[in-house]
Design goal:
There is one protein chain. The protein has about 290 residues and is of the alpha/beta class. It has two domains: about 120 residues, Rossmann fold; about 120 residues, Hypothetical Protein Tm841, Chain: A,domain 3, CATH 3.30.1180.10. The chain contains ten helices and 13 strands. A hairpin with a 2-residue loop joins strand 3 and strand 4. It is globular and about 55 Å long.
Amino acid sequence: MPDVAIVTDSTASIPEAMLKELNINVVAYYIHRGREVLRDLVTIQHDEFLRWLPTATALPTTASPGPGDYLQLYRSLIGKGMRSILSIHMSSKVSGAYQASVVAQSMLREEAPEVQLEVVDTQAASLCHGWIVIEAARGALAGLTFDDVLASVKKLLPLPRMIQTADTLKYLYMGGRIGMAKRLMGTMLNIKPLIGMKDGVIVALGQARSRLQAYTAMSTMVSEAIGNGKAKVAYVHAGALGEVEKIKQLVEVKVNVVESFFAELSPALAVHTGPGTAGLCYYPVED
């Protein structure tokens, strides 16, 4: 067991196998579906949720875990002998997870002042957030000290980039998460929007007239960003594995990808993107 415990949220959307392999501790988001309260990837799973979502007459709402949820996990880790915890969260500009974990941090300081606990706002979402968690967990498993793991996280924070497309932006719009991409709402129905994140909020990256053109644009953006260097890429989707397989093929003829995997958005994120979303989260890797 590593000396540093890594904590994150279900919205990081890290595949279950990787969570177990890397000993990552996850706190589940809440999904309110009418009067029903669901826990992200605990009481509701990908397939069931995506089958139901297009039939919904009202969009479910999501809520980040509260301070008590984080404090409960922190206490559990301390009970297992952990004295160093790194808690890594989605952008504070689109979710309350970071703020809730900061409150939990202040509560823990009063009852366990000897424990090192750092809370990190990634200013990212999806697998851009996830990549930071993954690399922190790898550092912890490799035996790095708390300070070294934290330093590596801070170095990585500005690097991951997200590009994704969907058939519609209505889910982002209805959920209030569309940010600076509002200008794409007026485009024709046959236009495929390309969106990303900048400074912690959703932004427009462009548009295409078909999924294939959108995927080609994605591959070009990644290629131009990486150049002759190397990259790690997570191909991310919401019930659209076949689509991200196409993206992978286009990207990896242009870019030297040293690690990649497929990941499905957690239901708490799929609420805002909708079924069929496909894209990637990548970052450059030093030699």
